[in-house]
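User: two proteins, same treatment. go.

Assistant:
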Amino acid sequence: GDYFALLNRCPHQSAELSMGLISGIATADEPGHVQCSRRGEFIRCPWHGWEFDIRTGQSWCDPGRISVKQYPVSITAGAELVEGPYKAETFPVSVEDSYLVVDL
């Protein structure tokens, strides 16, 4: 039920983030005791594995310095957009295996 929009470009070398894996974060208190948390909240760059929080765009390795541009997202009834003074830019959207896919 939550939607997030990030620039489809890794800040490292411009790889398409949409080609990366969506995952969680693996942490360990000690060797052999790995825990996975925040499943489905991170996207990993397909080229070099840099990880970004889908909710904020912040990198996992250096959140104070590295991030992906985040765009605001809202859900508005189509009738409201037609009646208002604004013209909404639209994109084709489909759902594939429980992922919302936006074709830009």
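Protein 2:
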Amino acid sequence: MPWLACEDRVVASLEVARARRARRRGLLGRDDLTGALLIERCRAVHTVGMNFEIDVAYLDADRQVVDIVTMRPGRIGRPRLGARSVIEARAGAFERWGIRVGDLLDVRLDA
């Protein structure tokens, strides 16, 4: 199972949406999320049809956080210049995990 790391700390379990279908579906249809979801090749997200509020971290090509927003259900986010992927988590998770704009995130295969 992959893990999300911030600097030198493992902060959460991680799902990775690589396939086109998985990227389009994201968190739609779920009632909850433990850990986080990485959507690669993504610059914008929406929460139309979602059941809960999420935190979204926009990452550049080096996986540095360029912006963080919290989105309520039914919203359409605007694209972020320079973003190459996003991390989604339940609202409040990034604050608990200490993730901030400027942090470098990493995907680890072992904790």
